[in-house]
Amino acid sequence: MVETSDTARVGSPCISVCLLNEEDICCGCYRSAEEIRSWLMMLDPERKQVLARATERSKQGNPFAGD
Q: Looking at the domain assignment, is residue 10 inside a domain?
């Protein structure tokens, strides 16, 4: 997550590895296709919720992630 000050927007978690799996989840940032499409219109509280969900997805889908 990228935040530089109290007024900065929550930054995109995109790492330019854009590939959707069979569930429409990006293999790079773990956001859903709908979350990616909606990102620019989201307010920071919504973005933080998306980041939390993406973090959980990354733990479930990453065999190298610790518990």
A: no
